[in-house]
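User: Before I run my own analysis I want an independent prediction to cross-check against. Here's the chain; please return only the structure tokens and, at the end, one sentence I can use as a sanity check.
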Amino acid sequence: MNRSTKTLLTAAAAAAFFASAGAASAQSGMWGYTPDTWTGPYVGAFGGFTQQNGEGNETIRFDRNLDGNYGDPVLLAGAARADAFSPGFCDGNAANAVAASGCDEDAGGTQGGIRAGYDYQLGSFVVGGVVDYSFVNQEDSVTGFSTTPAYYTFTRTLQQLAAVRARLGYAYGPALAYVTGGYATGELDNSYITSNGANSFRASTDDDKADGYQLGGGIEYALAPNLSLTGEYLYTSLDAGDYVIRTGAGTAPATNPFILAPFTTGTDQIRSNSRFGMHGFNLGMSYRF
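Assistant: Structure tokens:
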């Protein structure tokens, strides 16, 4: 079972738990508070853990002639002109410079933030909107290996995330089960690391903004007339901006594949996947006016 499947099963299990807990308590009346209406504004705070949605087939793409088109092979000098990156690529950070050692998967992260929203109840149905802002610490890396041997790793870390979403829910006793979706925007920190000490490496383009969407759902449970507890799953998909590394000569000889004639100026590198996907599991408290 891969990591994405485990994550989705965890989300489903969490949603089922909150749904069953809400239904049982509504029937028994042993705990919780059944509001007269969910209509009105609210503010709250939330926090939880995250996991990036890894792309196992991601690679690094190269532009040898610096024409802005990526997909050029980086070839070794000599008659055979073999692929300098024939050892391949993997999702995550390199264990060491040897491709056979593989990569360490990106660790899970954390998230914490604040939100505000407004709901309007129509019978048992509740419609509304919510705005939230959070600080996040979630990495997403990809590594390429050259025949040197050496590793080359791109990492982007989501640091801040804001979203504006609609909510559609169904109220049952003290519980409000809902689905939600809308626009999301984030700020990324891009970085690059390599064990290659011969060439020079600099960022020629570093766009730290990313826009996309959020989809998810959860259960909000009324604990008191003005207080509620929320369990929520959100999937975030962002289109990350370009992060381009210009690989120059440094102290490398003219036979170095990154500066091999006729393209002696250098080589641009970029990761093949521009999407940043993240699963988020949050608990929150809201005060309703």
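Sanity check: The helical segments are 3-28.
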